[in-house]
UniProtKB/TrEMBL annotation:
Domain named Amine oxidase: residues: 13-80, 106-343
Similarity comment text for this entry: Belongs to the flavin monoamine oxidase family.
Protein name, per record: Monoamine oxidase
Xref: Pfam families: Amino_oxidase
Organismal lineage: Bacteria, Pseudomonadati, Bacteroidota, Flavobacteriia, Flavobacteriales
Cited Gene3D superfamilies: FAD/NAD(P)-binding domain
GO molecular function, one term: oxidoreductase activity
Coiled coil: none
UniProt xrefs under InterPro entries: Amino_oxidase, FAD/NAD-bd_sf, Flavin_MAO
Amino acid sequence: MKHYKYIIIGAGLSGLTTAFQLKRLGENDVLILESRERIGGRILTQKGIDLGATWFQGHHTHVKDVLQLLKIPAFNQYVDGNSILVYNAMAPAHYFKSDSNAPASQRIVGGSTSIIKALSSSIKDCIKTNTTVHKVIEKDNFLEVHTANENFTANKVVVTIPPRIVSQIDFKPQLPERLQTAMNATHTWMSHAIKAGITFKKPFWRERDLSGMLIGQIGPMTELYDHCDPSTGIYSLMGFVNEGLRDLQPADRKAIILKHIATYLGPEVYDYLEYVEKDWSIDLHTSSRTLKNDGLNPGYGNPIYQEEYFDGKLIFSGTETSPLNGGYMDGAIYSGIHAANKVAVS
Ligand SMILES: Cc1cc2nc3c(=O)[nH]c(=O)nc-3n(C[C@H](O)[C@H](O)[C@H](O)COP(=O)(O)OP(=O)(O)OC[C@H]3O[C@@H](n4cnc5c(N)ncnc54)[C@H](O)[C@@H]3O)c2cc1C
């Protein structure tokens, strides 16, 4: 069994940040095990569309710091022109303008995946994808980490996967019951979400003085936004699909969504180039089988996640464990840095 000083379980934003920070601290004996065929976890940009995380806000200082460090620019979410609110099936649409004095949500140039690409570029060699951890066994002064094809040992293991799916890993000895209970009760942020994005030859809605923002709980897209990225030249709309469409066939869902957007933004919608969507609730690398849309008050950053387990050889990280901005990219980065600093000194 190959031995490492540190094994990180999960190559999402948190796990990659931990490895990046360990490297900055001069710690290079690191292995990251990732169950998916790709890295990034809940950050996924396809055809220029952010199907996972998209925005950060002014108080997300850890995102801002990492972007600055990695020299990745950001830009304001486009909100110029009229936005549309559809709140009642019988009433006409209502138009409104965003407050130009309100703090803007920020987007990452090249999509949120830019942060994943930049973070991983110097640590690529230590990442193994398609490698699901299914067992962690405590030995005297190290841990054994088991995957389907290969087993490894490590002095320290950092688990960064969403707490609710940690139960997919068999820990020997078992994790304390109070920790298991807390994990099962921790909703995985956005794991119920369905996102869709559509690309176009040009942002036709802007020519009509529309912002692209289309909001309303009664429609098939509860939220839709302009998702153009000046750096890539991709013109697109992206938003959240009404969960009531979850069980439809993808082609039927797409047809309903296109019709809805065409009604409010214009028939040019049908001249789209690409349509992409993702239902995170059926992706078991993120979601548990038991959830749809629960835990709207998730209470992230439970102090139980800051404790060390197996005599300090095992710690938990990831956005849901973060006492600061849990659920968001900022929480993932905060917890990732914190985890690296913690294992490196102990
Ligand atoms: C639809 C959606 C919209 C969002 N919008 C925003 C937004 O606008 N702004 C914002 O700040 N945040 C947003 N978020 C949240 C943001 O994406 C997360 O906070 C962040 O990406 C979480 O990173 P993480 O590393 O903690 O977890 P994850 O990204 O979930 O990473 C965990 C990793 O562990 C892997 N894994 C799971 N099980 C195993 C196993 N047994 N063995 C090995 N690997 C395993 C997974 O494949 C994954 O790569 C959104 C999320 C979604 C899904």
